[in-house]
Amino acid sequence: MGSGTARQETPADAETLAALTRMSEGFLPGLLGVRFTAVRDGFLEAELDITSRHMAPNGFLHAGTVVSLADTCCGVACARALPEGARGFTTVELKSNFLSSANEGTVYATARAVHLGRTTQLRGADVRRRGTEKLLALFRCTQMALWPG
Questions:
Q1: Domains of the chain with CATH codes
Q2: What strands lie across the sheet with 35-40, from one edge to the other?
Q3: Taking the CB of the first residue and of the last residue of the chain, which one, N or C, has fewer CB atoms within 10 A?
């Protein structure tokens, strides 16, 4: 694989998913209770159980919880697909459209690669309520690869 080519993501087993979840401990995704549930080429899924800590004062899921879940999925997927030689990434743009909300149950985000370039990656994520599959939000973000030097 030459310099600047995106690494191939590989399907994840239960051990890999548990390791991704452990990696988040002590950071915002861990504090929110994010659990990774699926990873494969160009795709990552994670979920969290709604508790009072995820709510806005109006009694519904806080928009920040939704964005954090979607951004976590997109960020971990980006880290897994960085071009060889990149030392990391940063998010340079994100956008969310909220279509619905929830106040109980489990919500999950599915992130998919739209563009995997040497300098930027673009991903989209859907956030849904588990069981009903009701679409809560559409999310897009652009990440920039960080290079040594």
A1: 14-146 (3.10.129.10)
A2: 35-40, 43-49, 106-116, 120-129, 135-146, 88-98
A3: C
